[in-house]
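ugh ok so i messed up the first submission bc i forgot one of the chains. this is the corrected input, ALL of the components this time, i swear. 362 residues overall. if the numbers dont match what u have on ur side tell me asap before i send this to the collaborators (the ones from the other lab, u know who)
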Amino acid sequence: MNHDRSDYTGIEKGENGAGFGQGGGNRPQKSSRNLRWVFFAVDALLILAIAAAVLSLLSLFTPFSLFGTDKKQTRTVTWVVEIDNASDAMIEALTEGSAVTDYATGKTLGTVTHVEARPYTTYTDEPTADGHVAVVEHETKTIVVTLSARADYAAGEGYTVADERIAAGCDYRISFAGFVSDAACVTVH
Amino acid sequence: MNENKKRTPARFNFNLLDVVIILLALFCIVGVWQRKNLQNLFRSGNAYDAYTVTFTANGVRGDTAALLTEQADVWTFDEKGTKIDFGSLNGNVTTEPAKARVLNDAGESVTVTYPADARDLRDVAGTLSCRIVEKNGRYLLDGKYQLAVNQTVTVHTETADLVICITGISKSA
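and heres the new structure output, hopefully the right one now
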């Protein structure tokens, strides 16, 4: 019987050591190679799909992020708090370089880098002649304290110092040099 | 000769199963890409649409208003404390001196502005780009947190917390 070896696939190549295309034409060899690439492509597609599904499930049900956007960084944050109705003694106690701590936890919220004071004022329910809300000036002061701290920063979340979110509009109960006071954050740099 | 009989010509049979597997793989990839829409689809039976939400915030400190910059991500928390992505700011907010209604000496209610002092209180207006599901006339942020005009919401950005009042909800063009 005269067998044309070109009828067989490349699977046989390893069996007898003779490759295709030796005298019998190379069409089956090409077909075999194409076939192999199709299998590779399908396998790769399947692996990609499974990997994507697993990563997606991980990002949905665990703190792991698919795109790594919630990775925390450590940054220096400068923030300004105001203390209303403050005494002169409090102003003197707030010196540059001194630490301000969270009253409840005792953890350091930042180091004082700048202190300003202005008269403490409140608004009334009465109008002035020029169409403004009337202001009452008190004997006490409003202290404007600039603080600097190393903070945890996460994109889309912001800054955290000593487990406290640092953001304008947040209120804090702070202590410094034996004083305790309420303070409101007015800006973050 | 027997050896040759055992050899069978291999042919690539691209059958229906292969097509199904390839289609499933493609659907998986698309599913991962569009996972949030799919989540919402399964949860509420609707898909997200792009909406523009207009808001005001009264009596905001000038320093705080300056932190509300274009593209800032905004979020809130539901009653269970779960973070809800609100959207992002469309452009910078507009501000004007904060107004108040007070009674004058004649007992009439008049509108006055807060003085331009150190607090620099401002009335803020802005727009947010949001992804909202509209279902039975209800606007659901993230598919579950209801938004409505006149609603006040405490919102957060990376650097500021404030209370906004929603003044309008409309589908983006």
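quick check: Residues 73-188 of chain A form one domain. that seems consistent at least. Strands of chain A lie at 73-86, 99-102, 108-127, 133-154, 158-161, 164-166, 171-176, 179-188.
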